[in-house]
Amino acid sequence: MTHRHRPSLRAFTLAELLVVIGIIAVLAVLTSVSVQRIAKDARLAGATNAVIAQLGTARAIAIRDNASVIVTFRPVLAEPPIFGPSGNVISPGNPQKGQVTEVVIGKATGRLVPLDTQTFDVFGEQYRPVAGVPARRLARGIKIAAPGDYISAFVPKWSVTPEFSNGEVGRAFCVCFGPDGSLRTRNPRIPGSVQTSFGGDPDNTSTFVGPWFDADGDNTADPGVGGITNVPTWVTFRTPDEEPVLGYTTLLAVYDYEDAVERGDPTEWQSSASATSEPNEYRAYFDAYVPQFGDFIGFNRWTGVARAVDQ
């Protein structure tokens, strides 16, 4: 009688199972980190493309209308207040929902508006929103920075927009296109002796003139903390209602504030309720963060055409 010998079945040992589970866990962690990094890079790339598109629209409007046109970046509440026809508040808005950055286009009105109506030390070159051209909202957490001054010849100090929920003080800036589409860093019709270009110190001039975006079209600006006679107040802001004097820039950096918070401690760069300038901790952190983790937008020197650039 013939007997068949069946091969014995060998099961995995506990040690082998643990090794396999460990390998799977490591691969899962690595995959998760890679996906998160790719997602963050995609957010920045998408925002950079959106800003470049809006810059192209502004340049085209400047050439079409033979006028000076700016692009500026307004941090607004993601859920802003809603007002009725008579100005009554229908909904107060919700700061807890966070804020987003709007990329808005403004056209020069040709008016020089006295913003400080007591000492007349601050004037704004008025720009108003272009009719029919909506603002573009960037993804939540995405912000824009620009060089505000230089530590040395090639090392900029970065002006960044504030996070309202963290009590920050920030600065506003704009890209300005002339009627021929080229970039401007000053209004050629205003003498240099009475105009402070971007990077200048408003404390050291008796008359401070700069682009001013009249967002609500009422011909007056809200200076916020510090009052209308405090000249440095006009170049900083800390609430969505303020309309600061803008600095000119020829370089932009797109960065992810949520990533900045993950890498730092936002409680270290909060400002006091009465502050009218950024604390040193705030400047130091973003002067280091923006060059390392931001995406950059530069401009052709002669044509003003915007494009993504390496730092």
Write the layout of secondary structure elements.
Elements: H1 14-65, E1 69-77, E2 82-83, E3 89-91, E4 99-114, E5 122-129, E6 136-137, E7 142-150, E8 156-160, E9 170-171, E10 173-177, E11 183-184, E12 208-213, E13 236-237, E14 247-248, E15 252-256, H2 257-263, H3 280-293, E16 295-299, E17 306-309
Parallel strand pairs: 5-12, 10-14
Antiparallel strand pairs: 1-4, 1-10, 2-3, 4-5, 4-6, 7-8, 7-15, 9-13, 10-11, 15-16, 16-17
Task: Summarize the structure in short.
This protein has 311 residues and is α+β, with helices and mostly antiparallel strands. The protein has helices spanning 14-65, 257-263, 280-293, and strands spanning 69-77, 82-83, 89-91, 99-114, 122-129, 136-137, 142-150, 156-160, 170-171, 173-177, 183-184, 208-213, 236-237, 247-248, 252-256, 295-299, 306-309. It has one domain (14-85, 95-309).
Based on CA atoms alone, the radius of gyration comes out at 25 Å
* Helical content class: 10-25%
Q: DSSP helix count?
A: 3
Count of strand segments = 17
Q: How much strand content do the residues show? A: 25-35%
| Low-confidence runs of at least 5 consecutive residues | none
What is the chain-wise order of helices and strands?
HEEEEEEEEEEEEEEEHHEE
Terminal CA distance reads: 84 Å
Count of spatially separate domains: 1
- Report the biggest beta sheet as strand number plus sense, adding barrel if it closes: 8 strands, mixed
Structural class: alpha+beta
Shape: globular
Question: Could you report the average pLDDT, rounded to the nearest whole number?
Answer: 83
